[in-house]
Every structure is written in C-alpha cells, then in structure tokens.
Design brief:
It is a single chain. The protein has one helix and six strands, in the order E-E-E-H-E-E-E. It is mainly beta. The chain has one domain. The protein has a six-stranded mixed beta sheet, covered by helices on one side. The model is unreliable at about 10-15 and about 80-85 (pLDDT under 50).
Length: about 80
C-alpha cells in the first residue's frame, strides 16, 4: 500500500492565497510530497520552490498550469515552459 503524500505550506510574509504547488519528486519522478506555496507571481513561487531542493527534483505548478521543472542536482531548469530563455 502506498503511503499518503505529505503536504505543507510555505508562507512568506504579506502573501495572499495562491494556487502554486511544488511537487517534490524522487529519482523515478514519483511525487514524494506536495508543498503549497503562497506567492503573488511566478518568480516568487520559483524562488520558494528552489528553497525546497535537497536532492530531489521539483515541479512547480500554478493550478493546472505547469511552470517549471527544477533539476535536483543544479536547481536549474532543463524544461522551460511559459518563460523566455
């Protein structure tokens, strides 16, 4: 039986509710946990997601909109979507 996905929230000061979520992934890209991020825009959400990097890849989503995949090794984004290079 699969263990439930762990959930928590990172809330920077003065941020309202949001739909940003960071999916923490293992080496097989299985979701380990979901972090709800209170951010006002994509850049702030990306900064918060980078803080979660600790040997696991992160996928950042805003509701159903994929924003970015952060590699576990470098914190860089090999997949870019909705953003200029």
């Amino acid at each position: 039986m699969t263990e439930p996905i762990e959930r928590s929230t990172i809330l920077p000061e003065d941020c309202g509710p949001s739909r940003y979520r960071a999916f923490v992934l293992d080496a097989d890209l299985t979701v380990l946990r979901i972090e709800h991020l209170a951010a006002q825009d994509d850049d702030t959400a990306l900064d918060l997601a980078r803080r979660l990097l600790s040997g696991h890849a992160i996928e950042l989503w805003d509701g159903l909109r994929f924003i970015e995949h952060l590699d576990s090794e470098c914190g860089c984004s090999p997949l870019r979507h909705d953003r200029e290079l």
